[in-house]
Amino acid sequence: MGHVGSSKDGTEAGPSAAAMGIDDDEDIDLGDVDLDPTNAEILEELGEDIVKYWCKKASMLFFNEYGLISHQINSFNHFIHTGLQKTFESFGDLVVTPGFDPSKKGENEHFRYASVKFGNVKLDKPMFWGGEGNAQEFKMLPRHARIQRMTYASKVKIQVKVQVYVPKKVRSDKFKTGKAEFLDREVMKEDEREIIIGRLPVMVKSDLCWMKEAEKEDDEFDHGGYFIVKGAEKTFIAQEQLYLKRLWVMNSPGWMIAYKSQMKRNRMVIKLVGNSRGEEVENGDMSLAVYFLSVEVPVWVLFFALGVSSDKEIVDLIGCGNDDVRIQNILFASVRDADEKCGAFRRGRHAVQYLEKCVKSVQFPPSESMQECLEMYVFPGISGLNRKARFLAYMVKGLLLAYTGRRKCDNRDDFRNKRLELASELLDRELKVHIAHARKRMAKALQRDLYGDRDVRPIEHYLDASIITNGLQRAFSTGAWSHPYKRMERISGVVANVGRTNPLQTMAELRRARQQVQYTGKVGDARYPHPSHWGKVCFLSTPDGENCGLVKNLAVTGLVSTDVSAVSEYILPKLLDCGMEELVDDTSTHLGNKDKVLLNGDWVGVCPDSSSFVAELRSRRRRNELPHQVEIKRDQSQHEVRIYSDAGRILRPLLVVGNLLKIKGFKSDCNSFQSLLDKGVIELIGPEEEEDCCTAWGVEYLFGKEGKRSVKYTHCELDMSFLLGLSCSLVPFANHDHARRVLYQSQKHSSQAIGFSTTNPNIRVDTLSHQLHYPQKPLFRTMASDCLGKPDNSLGQNKISKIPPKAEFYNGQNAIVAVNVHLGYNQEDSLVMNRASLQRGMFRSEHIRSYKSEIDNKESSDKKRKPEDIVNFAKLQSKIGRVDSLDDDGFPYVGANLQSGDIIIGKGAESGADNSVKLKHTERGYVQKVVLSSNDEGKNFAVVSLRQVRSPVLGDKFSSMHGQKGVLGFLESQENFPFTRQGIVPDIVINPHAFPSRQTPGQLLEAALGKGIACGGILRQATPFSTPSVDAITEQLHRAGFSRWGNERVYNGRTGEMVRSLIFMGPTFYQRLHHMSEDKVKFRNTGPVHPLTRQPVADRKRFGGIKFGEMERDCLIAHGASANLYERLFTLSDSSQIHICSKCKNVANVILRPVSGGRKIRGPYCRHCESADDIVVAHVPYGAKLLCQELFSMGINLKFETQLC
Amino acid sequence: MEGGVSYARMPRVKIRELKDDYAKFELRDTDASIANALRRVMIAEVPTVAIDLVEIEVNSSVLNDEFIAHRLGLIPLTSERAMSMRFSRDCDACDGDGQCEFCSVEFHLRVKCMTDQTLDVTSKDLYSSDPTVSPVDFSDPSATDSPDNNRGIIIVKLRRGQELKLRAIARKGIGKDHAKWSPAATVTFMYEPEIHINEDLMETLTLEEKREWVDSSPTRVFEIDPVTQQVMVVDAEAYTYDDEVLKKAEAMGKPGLVEIIARQDSFIFTVESTGAVKASQLVLNAIEILKQKLDAVRLSEDTVEADDQFGELGAHMRGG
């Protein structure tokens, strides 16, 4: 395909309209209009190479400025600058009324009232106390919060004003005010001050974070974008929600159009309902009904209540024309329905009275009058009842057009109908829950002190700061977040732990988006890719299983908008300047052919010429007179211009073809992506605006062949691979592989690869972290890896520039891989590896595991303990483990070699009991670090880190970049491998059967390209969708002196003979995954059993047994190995005995009974037969014996037939 | 090979190129088994000396102890004396713990960074107790004394205040035990090709077709004589047996255009040394080891006598 996106009104527009539509994207301010060059002339003048160079340069500037997680940080910054104040302001004054208990009235004659008002909110940077007695506060850096298990939070200070007053009647001059008396407040006490209302977790590298302006990075791979809550790193997964501010046309279960809102009272639905009268059923007429404020009324009545004065005005407002008989019938039926329900609705205020009667009869009627309800709850964003009537008519028109087939129903999976919720929206929601909780507690406490005898105390006494602080921490720690609609419910999947296996996994997790559905399983089309996902979310990366299609990944250049509607007062004047007219506030003026202008779903005006209006708006956006995030959509079929400036839209940068000439003026001083935006060379396109853009997928489509230049492109992609997500765009030759293999690599293997996770391990005490000793970059490059890679001049010289640090996104090593069968050891995806390569350090890795424990310092205790109760580590033996490596303080010394069973943290209680932390039987290592610390709650704790260095062993897992994973099946000596005439011996031998069924020729292309690169070739790009052709790769190999197809003649390493076949061999990038056999190997001779069933316990950590499943049982049955099966399931499991009386077939008991002679003996005895003569012993599993006993306790007796064998 | 002919071989060696770390020679009048045996022995059974035990006293660098120990073990040490040394497990002078002068060499490393400049700890900072066993010097003698030329293998980099202090024991070993003891960077051989051009078929090609066929070889094996317009072989040994020219001839409709046979009794050896042993000495040591293995096979019936007569050989055989 040559271009993406197509105009929805393409079928209706003729050639002249199409040409006029394309002209919309040209800037009027290009100079002399008469000399305005066309797009074709622009492209001829620049040339293809210059445009390609600028595409790459713009991509690099984009990533330098925005990085990969700017959507997280920008959302949080917007919240702390704007959203937090709004959150508090959304709560009005709190009026505390007294309890009106006469017995507590006291000496005063009147009951006292209180009023609490919130004012200005301020936030500090994170600080922490130095301890008791030390009043000084210190900077809290993220590394302090991590190591000391504190929450990286800032204090929220708010201005609170409390008034205690008594309402009092005051006389006044009747002739001045018109009233004899009115209620005034007699203020008895007033208090206003700034108090700390709670602590808000701070996102790392946001504006509130110390690390944003720090000269020296803690960790070069740390980009921020997450929170630290009690030492754990948490991040938000963007939540995909329906956009509520647009009208929704649905035809299931019936035809309706809905105005949705989070507040229930603001919602409105217009339905097509069947006529209730029986005698007119044969006509099939349907009428319009509107459902709002929990009642259903005829729509005509609502029109008259909003100020329309005649039926003709309503028909003119709707404006569907009179040419469709079905629409006429619906309107007539609606009028008839209104006449039947409220006969006099046209006269006077009868319509309002009818509505009031309906609304007041519901279960929970609103307390306001009907007039106030119409002003507050009906279309709250629009002012004026007459304008609301116009909007209502606009809704009716939309429904009728959809019913007659001239408008499509809204697709809930289209990304134009979606908004992503990030830190700004999520924190606002959670904070409101806890502020409401704190206010409720404050009101209750204040109410008690309002009684006569008590004094109202300072504000700090009533506002409990821990409610908000602990509430936010609990929400982050447990992951149970407040529901967007249901107040009492909480949802999961909002907060995720930040993974630290490698930097790519961290980045991919910060760029995740999720859609919540009520039922797993069938969710309709929500799991499928939609065409609007192009360039916004990756259509390959998604988990398999129950979240398939619901959890998505942002495309590599995807940005998420923040709310710029705070400048709505700033945008509206711009719209009026560009030609918009204000909407008249009456119901009788005809709008004629003017188009509607909607701003964030609200109808704000009309414009006579939408073409010039939209062109002028876009021109101003490209000149930075409007924010770049503003989205402008011209809908010619519905005669609308829709403008969006709200948060949560996914935007992406596209090249504007008409403004390409401006790059000549940049020359070489362009070092900012913002200047490209300001010049209009690049603009950010949202999902709805993209439907009107004619976008070329690559630069070569702009410069089509001579006869194929008929398509006039308005925009161009920066690179073809930017529609993929972060992990997918790093896969070489991804378009040559099966999509499933790219999915495995991007979703799973890249997260499991062991790489270089941090540049500063000293500041981290992760429970488990991995590090590859010699990580390497691959030989190939992709466009995404070029833009995201390290700057070339990064030797500390560019400290002045604010380029964000770049992480390492390739986690593995280059290995010489031969595709060969090596003695059969690499069957079933196994790999044969060169032992000498591993001994020289290939894929060697380091694993650090931390053990944490809380400790108490009891030196201040004045109790005298007995000398024999003191546990002296390093001298005496502990009862539960070895203490050879511990110092006097109970901690091991750095460098000690600890084995399983050793004590790692020595602890003793006051009673002398030994509570030490001991290594389990699978854990060992060298002591890397011992940390003693305390958090801000005064708890002391210790962390001991153990280090293990591992070389690959049989059973370890590896994977290429194409989803070809395999375990290590054999380690071969170097001299036994086949060798080439140059002496090259492969590091890895892979089975050729792995390629045909999995369809991964990309791996072979990567190896062939890598071989050419290693020999000095200049062809290095392996970007998906713009990969070099096979001819180019083979030509590069040929010039390097190798066979064209990458095959080589090899000699048998064992015999020296020439191998008859040519073997494909080349460098391939391989990753070591963190599934290692040392973590999974398990053996057991004897060990713990379950106390109830006496069967072995389950886990490896608990020294459990090896699972012998149903399939294993079937395998042994197939082989006829019954003795083996008997041993596995009985002898080694829960072998037991049961005594049975063969005479009466009951179970005999083993009891102590008297016998003749006065002695007592112990043995089996049948109580039924009262003898021990016929007892036999049967060997049964203990589970069967347990079942027999359980049934007996329920009164069910089992009988056993016995037969001697 | 004819039946009844004796298996005695008279191989001939012709040296083409000889440097300290590189050797190229021809081996003729023998078969592939001897050539491959020589290759395998050079890779895996020629003994060298490498660091085998590291006691780290102080290590405040960013790398941990195992990392540094592994890097120390991979440093090649000059091992001319290795053939006459003893394996530490068979040494009777120190009861097998490998600490005496007959079977081990001691190294010391003591470096501390006192300046703001990053300090590179290299193999030149290792001090040996035996001057004949020291880290291999990779500097180029012909170049002038420039800073880049005079550096060894980097072990670790230290910042101000960081320190590394350790003692290391180097022992004799062979590459079969660990790759660090292998003296060969790589050893390879190829069969000498015999190339016969069918002149009659070649004459049926046009000059353009001849050039196209000549260019189909990725390595420069054939060339067109500018005077006579004939295709001739300029470098037969550049042929890599990749069948490219054969496929091209078949594609052009001339399947018998050229005939290439690998001679089964001529081998061209290439030996690259890591510097621990000179390349020439490596070949000689390999031949010596091969002879010892053959002697051991011949005397294997009398084990006791073999131990007495060839004590060092017995130790080597058990080591392998």
Would you summarize the structure shown here?
The complex is a heterodimer of chains A (1205) and B (320). Chain A has 1205 residues and is of the alpha+beta class.
Can you lay out the helices and strands and say which pair or pack?
The complex is a heterodimer of chains A (1205) and B (320).
Chain A: E1 3-4, H1 15-23, H2 39-46, H3 48-66, H4 70-89, E2 94-96, E3 113-123, E4 127-129, E5 137-139, H5 142-147, E6 153-171, H6 174-177, E7 181-201, E8 227-229, E9 232-236, E10 238-242, E11 248-250, E12 256-259, E13 268-274, E14 286-292, E15 295-298, H7 299-305, H8 311-318, H9 325-341, H10 350-360, H11 370-376, H12 385-403, E16 418-421, H13 423-449, H14 465-478, E17 481-482, E18 490-491, E19 495-497, H15 503-510, E20 512-515, E21 551-553, E22 559-560, H16 568-577, E23 581-582, E24 595-599, E25 602-607, H17 610-622, E26 631-635, E27 640-644, E28 650-656, H18 673-679, E29 682-685, E30 695-696, H19 699-702, E31 715-716, H20 726-729, H21 739-752, E32 768-772, H22 783-788, E33 813-819, E34 831-834, H23 835-839, E35 845-855, E36 897-898, E37 903-905, E38 917-918, E39 925-934, E40 940-950, E41 957-960, E42 965-972, E43 988-990, H24 1001-1014, H25 1030-1040, E44 1047-1048, E45 1063-1072, H26 1110-1119, H27 1122-1131, E46 1135-1141, E47 1149-1154, E48 1160-1165, E49 1175-1181, H28 1182-1193
Parallel strand pairs in A: 10-20, 24-27, 30-31, 33-43, 34-42
Antiparallel strand pairs in A: 1-30, 2-3, 3-6, 4-5, 6-7, 8-9, 9-19, 10-16, 11-12, 12-13, 13-14, 14-15, 17-18, 20-21, 22-28, 23-25, 24-25, 26-27, 28-29, 28-31, 32-35, 33-45, 34-43, 35-40, 36-39, 37-38, 39-40, 41-42, 41-45, 44-45, 46-49, 47-48
Chain B: E1 12-18, E2 22-28, H1 32-44, E3 48-59, H2 65-73, E4 104-112, E5 119-122, E6 127-128, E7 154-158, E8 163-173, E9 184-197, H3 199-203, H4 207-215, E10 222-224, E11 231-233, H5 244-251, E12 258-273, H6 279-298, H7 303-309, H8 311-319
Antiparallel strand pairs in B: 1-2, 2-12, 3-8, 4-6, 4-8, 5-7, 9-12, 10-11
Helix pairs in contact in B: 1-6, 7-8
